[in-house]
Amino acid sequence: MEQYYGTGRRKTSVARVFLRPGTGKIEVNGKTFGDYFGGLVKAVSALEPLRRVDVSNRFDAYITVKGGGKAGQVDAIQLGIARALVNYNGDLRAKLKPAGLLSRDPREVERKKYGKHKARRAPQYSKR
Questions:
Q1: 47 near 57, Cβ under 8 Å?
Q2: Could you tell me if residue 120 is inside a domain?
Q3: pTM, two decimal places
Q4: pLDDT of res. 15
Q5: Domains of the chain: total
Q6: In sequence order, which residues have a C-beta less than 8 Å from that of residue 53 and are 6 or more positions away?
Q7: What are phi and psi of 21, to 5 degrees?
Q8: Alpha carbon 105 to its chain's center
Q9: 27: domain CATH number?
Q10: What is the DSSP letter of 117?
Q11: Which stretches of sequence are listed as region Disordered (predicted)?
Q12: How does pLDDT run across 17-34, given as a tens digit for each residue?
């Protein structure tokens, strides 16, 4: 069975995406895409790479995603799908790259420092 693999990461989420020839079924952690993400509006952006290259009905996607929240998972899945499509056909890179779908967002949460409430938020200054 032929399949194409791509790994996507965002914040602390990691998505493993397997694209196999099929009818457009998408399964995330054993659930359908809609059931896994519920009513999350941002979730449809995860499928943008498939729409951008017009192959949404030619592949079934089997995805396992861990870590982070739903928003980070959506972005990780998007990058994983884009990378899997490039593994399928390197010529698709020309359509995906200008749209920014092959770029890993490097932003991570800054660590909390001692003496602060959060990473940078200091306690309120008191003159007296």
A1: no
A2: no
A3: 0.91
A4: 97
A5: 1
A6: 85, 92, 95, 96
A7: -55, 135
A8: 10
A9: 3.30.230.10
A10: S
A11: 103-128
A12: 999 999 999 999 999 999
